[in-house]
Amino acid sequence: MLLTKLAVILTAGAFLASAINLGEYGKKAYGAVKRSLPDSETIKPRQNTVACPAVWTAVASELSTLFLNTTDSLCIDDARAAIRAAFRDCGAWNITSPGGCDGSLILAADELTRPENNGLQAYGAKILAITQKYQAIDSSITAADMIQFASSVTIVTCPLGPRVKTYVGRNDSSIPAVKGHLPNANASAASLIALFAQKGINAAEIIAFIGAHSSSKQFFVNETLAGAPQDSTPGEWDVDFYAETISKPTGVFVFDSDASLAVDPRTSATFSGFVGKQKKWDGAFIAAMTKLSLLGVPEGSANLIDCTSMVPTTRPVPRDVKRATFQ
């Protein structure tokens, strides 16, 4: 039976070979047949089967402790800084410049001193020290990977936060990122859409990204209101940000850039579409954040190692947590 099936396959293969023979059909017909076939890259299986280094289990454990408030089981300011740092390290890249997710945020001499990175100095020193600690155990660890891995751990440390696809294997660089490629909290929707387009990120992905402001507090946009949250539940990873950016309740600080994106015709439907839709936002955020974490990385994830399994799982909102209300 097996030999019979093999003979049939070989006969079919010979028939196909003759069907696209250049001598019989000519180059034009052959080209048409070839174009109708799937691209070989789309059907080639991934070759990267390297296991995630075990050291990342210990890293995840330490970071989980660093980012969690053990009193109320919510995420803390270092957790908020970790998410911001991941974006800042990768987001300074665009199609015209080198860099990207390369650890330069904490390795280059001046990046953390730039105004757009205010508030990240203390966290930068902590995550650099953790990087160096684990490099002494496993030399494959890089600052670039640590910044992104820490962000993934942070997101699940905040209650409701989803597991984001997490890779390691990036190269480090101490060359400062080019200035002027990061968004401004007072920017218009139009300028933000243009800025992110230069990174290969579309308008819908921008809206998914900024939902991370759900766990954010501002300190430098308006220093008279330092510490003001960007939604009423800054210790949780929820979708309150989307509704409250629109309604602007007392006590919630809304960036001008977020307000602009909420009403711009190109982004308003996506923005309002996340109101009350936790799972919908989670899916969109995971895809957008995974894309961000590969900016400037040669060949994307092809040569990286998948360490998503080392990231803890999503945590529920503690039952005894009372949501903040502002008068």
UniProtKB/TrEMBL annotation:
Protein name (database record): Peroxidase
Record has Plastid as a keyword: no
Cofactor note: Binds 1 heme b (iron(II)-protoporphyrin IX) group per subunit. Binds 2 calcium ions per subunit.
Site positions (Transition state stabilizer): R84
Gene Ontology molecular function, alphabetical: heme binding; metal ion binding; peroxidase activity
UniProt entry tagged with the keyword Glycoprotein: yes
Residues at which Ca(2+) 1 binds: D89, G100, D102, S104
Cysteine disulfide links: C75-C158
Gene Ontology terms: biological process: cellular response to oxidative stress; hydrogen peroxide catabolic process; response to reactive oxygen species
